[in-house]
Amino acid sequence: MRGKAHQSLRKSMALTVVAVVTLLCASFSWAAEPVTLQVLVHGSSGTDYWNRTRTFFDGFEELNPDIKIEMTPSPASNPAEGLAVRVAGGISPDLVRLWGVPEVAKAGLIQDITDRFERLPSDVRSDFWPVLIDGTLSWNGKLYALPLGTAVSSYFYNKRLFNESGVPFPTADWSWEQEGTQEIPRMTRDQNGDGTPETWGIVRIDGGLGRETYHFSYAAGGGPLFSQDGTKFLGNSDAVKDALQFIHDLAHVHQAMPAQGTGWTNFGEQTAASMMWGSFMFGFMQRFPDLDWDISYTPTFQGGRATNIWPETPYAIPVGAKHPDEAWRVLEFIASVEGQTLAMELGWGIPPARRSVALSAFLDANADVNIPAMIDMINTPATQVLPEHVPQDIRTYYYNNVIKPVATGEKSAVQALDEASPVIQSMLDEWNE
Q: Which residues pair with 151 in a beta bridge?
C-alpha cells in the first residue's frame, strides 16, 4: 500500500509539474505577443511624409519589440476633426498626430501628460526648449503633447544672387529699416523692362496664415496677438499697426517684394533672393541641388529682434486610448536623444525639440548652415510661439481681413485692425462660452 501511495504521489507531482510548465509556457507565449498601437496620422499611405513616419516608428519598434505601431490615415483635412469623430464613436486611437494642441486639449479630446512628463529625469525635461513646453504644447498650465521637433521662422538667403548683386551676406547687425529698405531691393530686377521683375529681393512676407508677419510686432515690443488664456485679442496695438504698415511699404514703396504672389518655390527656383519661412524648409531644399543657400539672424525691427516658433509634428494620447501606458512609451522615445536624432536623420529638416541634440547632431548634420543663429533666435526673449491656442478660423479671419488687405494696399493697417478687432473679439467670446 505504501508503494502504491508513493507512486500516486509521484504521479500527482509529475502532473503538477507538467501543468505548471504548460502554464508558464502559455504565459510566456502570451507575454511575447506584442501590443499593437493604433496611431492616427494625416496624409496617405505611400507619400513621402507617410514613409518617413513609418521609418521613425520602425526605429521605435526595434528598441521596443513588445509594441507594434499600426499607422492609420485620417480622412479629415485636419487631424483634430478625425480624432473628434473617433473619440465620439468610442474608437479612440492610442496616439494622434496633431497640428495645434491647445484647441484639441480644451475640447477634452486628449490626455494630460504633465505627471508622466514630470517623472522623466530632470536633465531630459530641462533639455526641451522652454518656449515649446510652456507654449502651445500646453493648455491651462498642463502639458498635452510632445513633438518630433521645432519649427522656427528663419531668414533664408541665396548666396549667388547676393554676390551677383553686390549685396553683403546678412549678419546679426541687419535691420529691416536699413538693409530691408536699401540692400534687399537691390536684388529686385526687371531685366526685360516689362514692369514685372523676374527676380525679387525677398519672397512676399506672409507664410502660413501670415505667420511671418508676426515677428515684426514681437520685435517692436507688441507682445502676443492673443491673451494666454485665449479670451482677448491684443493685436489692435500701435506696435502691430506699425509692423503691418512697414510690411506694406516693403512692397509698395521699396519694391523689395511683390504685394501678392510668390512663395517658397520662388526661392528654390532662384527667382527670389531671400525669404522668411519655417525651418522645416531645410528638408525641401534637397529638391534644389543647385541652390547655394544659408540662413541668418532675422533682421531687427525698431531695435528689437524676435521670431516665431512652434512645435513641429506634436503627438498626443487621446481620451479613451486602449493602451495609454504603451502610448506614453512612444512619447518617451520621441523625447529621447535617439528619437530626436532619428527624426533629424530622416531629412525632415526640423531642428530637434531638445537643445542638446540641436547643438550636437543637428549642428553636425548641417555644418554648412548657420545653425547657431537659429538657436540664438529660439532663445531670444521676445520670440513667441504661434498663437495656436486659439481656433484656426479666428487666425484665418485675422489673416484674410487684416494682413492680406494691408499687404495688397486695399486698406491701411489702422483701418483693417479697427474694423476686424471687434469681430475677432466676438469670435473669441463665442468660442470661450
A: 310
Nearest-angstrom CA–CA distance, 46 and 51: 6
Sign of the alpha-carbon dihedral angle for 320, 322, 328, 330: negative
The C-alpha atoms of residue 363 and residue 345 are separated, in whole angstroms, by 12
CA separation (Å) from 62 to 40, 304, 314, 339?
20, 47, 22, 12
> Exposed, middle or buried, 333 (CB in 10 Å: 0-12/13-18/19+)?
buried
Alpha helices (H) in 74-178, listed in sequence order: 79-88, 102-106, 114-118, 122-125, 130-133, 159-165
CA distance 311 to 134: 11
Is the pTM higher than 0.85? The answer reads yes
CA dihedral of residues 50, 56, 59, 65 (deg, nearest 10): -60
Q: Which residues are CB-contacts of 224 (< 8 A; sequence separation ≥ 6)?
A: 218, 234, 384, 387
For residue range 288-344, what is the model confidence (pLDDT) as tens digits?
Answer: 999 999 999 999 999 999 999 999 999 999 999 999 999 999 999 999 999 999 998
Amino acid at 344: M
CB 407 within 8 Å of CB 206: yes
Residue 304, phi then psi, degrees to nearest 5: -110, 165
**Count of other CB atoms within 10 angstroms of residue 290:** 8
